Amino acid sequence: MDFDKVIDRRGTYCTQWDYVADRFGEEDLLPFTISDTDFAVPKEVMDTLQKRLSHQVFGYTRWNNGDFQQAVMNWYQKRFAYQPQSEWILYSPSVIYSVAQLIQMESNEGDGVIIQTPAYDAFFKTIEGNQRRVIENPLIYSAGYYRIDFEDLEEKLADPRNKILLFCSPHNPTGRVWTEEELRPVVSLCVKYNVFLISDEIHMDVVSQGHKHLPITQFMTNNVALVTSGSKTFNFPGLIFSYLILPNSEDRELFLNHLKNKDGLSSTSILGMEATMAAYNYSSDWVDELNTYIADNIHLATTFFEEKFEKVVIVPTEATYLMWIDLSGISIPMDEVQRRLVHIGRVAIMDGEVYGGNGEHFLRLNVGCPRAKLIEGLNRIEKSLEGVE
């Protein structure tokens, strides 16, 4: 795969490129924003899609088939040395749809949903949109590194008004890959206080060397749901396809009732399903190449900040293609940083304030792009912050 290849995404109704003004107020900015990449899908995926398109009939499609479930099982075995049972695997149009339905299933209006902040901004919206309360368990930030505050987590889990822990593994935006020594006590506390655990593992494949993602359902099979998709890894969120691993049969029955009867979503996107199966069946080597390329981009950006802005701290990116950059040590406030990035450098980078916690001191930089774009972006950052100490 040629990850250096630049593909012009403008004019394709692309959220990141064509609608950058929605968030930043200006057109024609160089974007490093929402979490998709600028990479083409793997050749095996493209070949599969083209073959299916040539069929010319796109009728109602059944996701509940052995080929799809086997592709997921094989992927987990190959990438994580773990294999869920086939009947645990259910389709969902998106990870956030899954989260919303599980929140409705496992709690009542007014109940608390615990998240570890800073957190993916859609978590706040989904919790509040379902009339539940956001309960923050702020991550401890020390010496440029994040860890779970277990004392505070237990206090929040022990409150009977809090019914769900919405967990992010690997964690967006901090880039943490939770270790077994961290996951086991999280699971134990949820079991102890009978709190349902939803684990968003959509970034599970993009993991730095020396770190290993561990699926949550290998530690527990009751009161748990693993929600994920191939869309972040292989860059096809526009094909609208995700899945969840739901071990408990009663939970599966209730989720399918929401999916099929309440919301009328029993038929899936044929292209999304075909893309996922092709990616999982044939593109493991592509993911290895992707991770190498992302690691090189992270190294490039880290070196840039170390050389140009010595007071900027780069949080180690253990997973994802999203760098979490601490600007709390520089001499200007974040609103001025953003003003300069947009109006001087003409570059769009996510303001960490939207992720809660201590995010107001951070930028989230998406480095899932060809190196030429990243270099141009870093040059624009340097121009934007010229003279800042």
From TrEMBL:
Keywords attached to this entry: Aminotransferase, Lyase, Pyridoxal phosphate, Transferase
InterPro entries with a match to the protein in the record: Aminotransferase_I/II_large (IPR004839), C-S_lyase_PatB-like (IPR027619), Class-II_PLP-Dep_Aminotrans (IPR051798), PyrdxlP-dep_Trfase (IPR015424), PyrdxlP-dep_Trfase_major (IPR015421), PyrdxlP-dep_Trfase_small (IPR015422)
Domain Aminotransferase class I/classII large: 28-381
Named cofactor requirement(s): pyridoxal 5'-phosphate
Enzyme Commission number(s) of this protein: 4.4.1.13
Keyword match Lyase: yes
GO molecular function: cysteine-S-conjugate beta-lyase activity; pyridoxal phosphate binding; transaminase activity
Pfam families: Aminotran_1_2
Gene3D superfamilies for this protein: Aspartate Aminotransferase, domain 1, Type I PLP-dependent aspartate aminotransferase-like (Major domain)
Endoplasmic reticulum recorded as keyword: no
Record-stated family: Belongs to the class-II pyridoxal-phosphate-dependent aminotransferase family. MalY/PatB cystathionine beta-lyase subfamily.
PANTHER family, A to Z: PROTEIN MALY
Protein name: cysteine-S-conjugate beta-lyase
Species this protein is from: Ruoffia halotolerans
